[in-house]
Amino acid sequence: MSALGYSHMNRKFLALTAVAVTAIASTSPAEARTQMRAVGSSTVYPFAKIVAERISRANPRLGTPIIESTGTGAGMKLFCAGVGERFPDVENASRRMKASEAKLCAANGVTQVTEIQIGLDGVSLATSKSSPLSGLTQRDVYLAIAKTPFGRPNRAKTWKDVNGRLPAIPIRVYGPPPTSGTRDALGELLMTPPCEANPAMAAMKKSDESKFKAICTGVREDGAYIQTGENDNLIVQKIEANAGTVGIFGYSYLEENTDKLKGVSINGVAPSYASISTFQYPGARPLYIYIKNAHANAIPGVRAYAAEFTKESTFGPGGYLRRSGMIAAPNAVRAKSQVSARALRPLNLAGLK
Questions:
Q1: How many CB atoms lie within 10 A of CB 265?
Q2: β-pairing, 66-67 with 113-128?
Q3: DSSP secondary structure string, 35-62?
Q4: How many CA atoms lie within 13 A of 241 on its CB side?
Q5: pLDDT of 206 over the 80 cut
Q6: 197, 182, 177: which is closest to 93 by C-alpha?
Q7: Angstrom distance (rounded) from CA 140 to CA 160
Q8: Which of 88, 89, 106, 238 is nearest to 174 (CA)?
Q9: What is the residue-averaged pLDDT of the chain?
């Protein structure tokens, strides 16, 4: 669509929703969308649902924000597709926006975007309590699930094939799909460091970065790694029902199911609130929400969402999201997030990597 078309659509959208803001109680769905809509991360999804319910209770006129679990990558495509009421207002993300996504946003007229860090999470490996598997290294994880570890086909069938000190049980790992931010974080945080430690791979990173990334982050397609979509609860069910299997998901899902599952230590560090909040755990990562500023001026629920998510009573160490597994970011980060939520300062899209 041409820039002129987007401009016309945006003017129409803003005009319609301006009417909704002044007479929201009597606005019909046919006139304009008044409910906020967020897409994105399955990891952020349970926290976002709680925040949405709080907003609805505090101000019923805004309606309950619509929260969709699409995965971070798929959500970014929807978020960056354009400005107007048929496009999402907010993107929930379990990783930072990529440069390629920023370019897509800019190309479609989404030029004013605010980035807000909402907390921390850990890419966690878990297994059933009866499993003999309890501790792995990043190298173990890489050799077990990489499609071509160090450029060679993966022949490992059991964990013992990966590391002689591990049990001889089949490698069956349930994990997120390519559209998931958790999958991106798995590749970046747990698989790439041991891959890059190989001198030949380190040299490849300089000469052919795309090939390096494929070798260091690509996962197996022979049945050892099983994609389970954007439903982390399904992964919990799978590993509980199949002793010896391993699941990969956000820490909150592990914390909610400690009666059924146990976390797998990585490099001798177990996933926990303390280890993730101090970044001792290798899989620790920040979580974000992205606000489409043009929509924030038209849909009242957008500003309410940003404000509620960044209240100290929401995402602080003693906030209500802590009870659902969110890990509070450091004080300085929380303070910056609160300022960003109030001012909606646009992110420098050109500065993303």
A1: 18
A2: unpaired
A3: S-EEEE-TTTHHHHHHHHHHHHHH-GGG
A4: 7
A5: yes
A6: 182
A7: 10
A8: 238
A9: 89
- 320 DSSP assignment: G
Across 12-23, average pLDDT: 38
Q: How far apart, in whole angstroms, are the C-alpha atoms of residue 40 and residue 282?
A: 24
Dihedral sign, Cα of residue 9, residue 75, residue 284, residue 187 = negative
In the DSSP assignment, the letter for residue 56 is H
Structure tokens at 271: 């996933």
Domain 3-120+286-351 in CATH 3.40.50.970? The answer is no
122-284 CATH pick, 3.40.50.720, 3.30.70.120, 3.50.50.60, 3.40.190.10: 3.40.190.10
- Quick one: pLDDT at residue 12? 41
Give the mean model confidence (pLDDT) for residues 26-36.
54
- Specify the amino acid at residue 277: S
| Per-residue pLDDT reduced to its tens digit, 38-88 | 999 999 999 999 999 999 999 999 889 999 999 999 999 999 999 999 999
Average pLDDT of the residues in 181-186: 94
